[in-house]
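I'll show a sample.
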Amino acid sequence: MGMRGLWAAATAPVFATTVIGVGSTIAGWIGVGWSILPALATALVIAAGIVIVRRVTRTHSTVRFPARWRWWTVGVFAVTALAIALLVVRVLQSPDAISQSFDNIFHLNAIRYIVDTGIASPLEIGQMTSPSGGLPFYPSAWHATVALVVQVSGSGIPLAINAMSLTTAAVTWPLGILVLSRVLLGSSPSVMVGTGIVAAAVPAFPLLPMDFGVLYPYQLALALLPVALAATAGLLGIGRSAGRLAPGWWALVVVGSLPGLALAHPGGFVGWLALTVPMVIVFGVRLWRTSARASHRVWIAVGAVGYGIVGVLLLRALRPPLATRQWPTETGLGDAAWRVLSVTLFYPAGAWLVGIAVLVGLYWVVREREAELIVAASFWLVGAVLFITAIALPWGTLRDALTGSWYNNWPRLAALLALALVPLAALGIARTADAAARLLRRRGVSGAVRLSAAIVSAMVVFLAFHMQATPRAQGWASDVYGYQTGTYLLTADEFALLERLDEEVPADAVIAGSAFTGAGLAYAIADRHVLMPHALMDISDDLELVNEHLSDALTMPEVCEAIDALDVDYVLDFGTQEVHGDDLNPLPGIENLQDSPAVRLIDSEGDARLYLVTACGRG
């Protein structure tokens, strides 16, 4: 592809996600089980095609940033990655911690499903919960990637997920945002430092998707988004890297990025659609100004209209079902605007130093009026408008039209805004630092003193920005990964019982249990088949009978028929504490079984119990 240096490092995760997403889809089409082999085969085919095209077209151009500031880039990346990695590690608390959240029931079990069946295609993974085809598409690139980690390393699923989260937050994200800032703002040390400072200072990204939801696939998609934006800038002739590759090659980079973005999570792809609007406008204005002939301008106008129509159609097509877009607003328009200005996007503590940097960045945009800086400011403006729309806009139809693709779920837009504001805030820091350096130079301060002052100042500012909002966010998010008393997915006792389940339950046995209480995670953690791998799934008549009446099997013959049809051997009874509260989704046939003659207690840990089904001639 001609990528070198930082560009090569930042594009590698994006292209790898595309390879995995496309490879898993093709593997599903041709009936090949998902593993490292189809992933490598897909990578080799794509790489061979690129090499052939470069040789046929005799293309030898490469894109890289100037080597002059290479070590500043390496240093900033290392410090930013370390700060984010330490934050993630403190949130997780242990390598095999799990997010105690509703969505994680699906994520954990979907990875086991891929490892177990070899089905990783986004067109087929929904069969885990809907064999009838009720979930025809689910973005599975993240799940397929973690499944590869499990297969290759032999690690447990929780450990593989946490390794993926750490890599996404502390490696993929800093690399991508550094590339985007360098494309728009230049390659000076001050730009790099400013970008690193802001990238590690706003917990709404990359931390929020690990906390709320949990939104692992969305976290990956947003971490990949900056590279796709930077490549789009190159394609449209915007930024410092634009002329280093021919437009056709930039188009290939964009095309190579978008499948990974969409198959990680469509919200990332729609984010690309939204944030590229300012770049397309700049591109269109430049074309208009340089086109003297009226016919050219007519085609530009036609193209603009076509672009708008395609964008609207994509927004409508990519919206999830109406039932999933019913997230309510959270506050009023005034408070929403204040949250944007103070960068209080999700957690109680605001990153108001970043907010000041954004306002200073706007000052420099107005002063310099460069197209690239206007694009950086427009990123922030688009992100702010979408965030305010989702969290506060009272007009439902307009709100759904603008943010329905993100489920009208304002925390998702908070994460997008945290990404979108980085270039503008980095500009505010960088240009102010440059102005201070010029002032010192005019006053005759030596280069060595200026360099020392710059390094010390960068460290102090980095710590000030990072420590303002992240400590409280860390405490908030770490609760999701612990076993505190409350409405959580698993208690410490339940997790301990699941960890030894494979020693007590045969590999071919089937376990009944409520997904709402975490019992369904026996599939992910112990590799034992369960009736309910997720709370949202097709419920057959037999499954409904078991859930409602297994405890009455001795007096209800039809229950025995259902038990035999589903081949149920064991029951995990985790009581009535559910992930969202206590006894909100009661399943009386598989709860409070201590007095039921249909089962016999096999093992327990605290209030968590494993029963053997003895009714219906079983056990």
Notes: The mean pLDDT is 91. The radius of gyration is 26 Å. Residues 366 and 374 are 8 Å apart (CA to CA). The first strand starts at residue 510 and ends at 512.
